[in-house]
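Comment thread on ticket #2218

A.B. wrote:
> Attaching the input chain for the structure job we discussed in standup.
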Amino acid sequence: MTKRALGSACILALVSLAALQGSALASDDAQGGGSRELLYIAINLVILLVVLVYFARKPIQEFFAGRREQIQGDLDSAAELLSQAEQRNSEIQRRLIDLQSQIEEIHETTLRRAEEESERILAEAGKTAERIQADAASAVDQELLRAQRELRAEAADLALKMASEILREQVTDGDRERLLDEFITRVEPGSEASR
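C.D. wrote:
> Ran it. Output below, let me know if you need it in another format.
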């Protein structure tokens, strides 16, 4: 304790002593002789307080100084922990903001890719449909040409059969001999010219 605290303790003891002495004087008149006893008790109290202050001053000062240092250390530690917590909180908040922006970016990228994939699939489906239509049109055209050839061949065969039947029915043996003679006369001048 400091001198001020020691002085305060002495003043408190003297005030207590004066109060006790005043009450002792008042009771002394009533009882007689008891005030001396009270005065000795007060003196003993003051001596006890002075001895306590004198001998306990350093340990009490050391206790309160140690307690003050401990409290100051705890406050410093708490301030440091608070600073670290605020730094971590700001870092976490920054990471949350970054994470939120990454989530939005991933979401936008996913939507864009889904749209691109959808457009690609639709384009491929359109190309496939066009190819199928072209193949079908080509197959129809080829089938139509084949059918036309077959019809022409059938028509030619049928015309040939009909012509041969007509010729059999309408051409007589005399017409045949006349045709044969005409053919021979036409062929012979060409074959003689080539000789």
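A.B. wrote:
> Thanks. Noting for the ticket: The mean pLDDT is 81.
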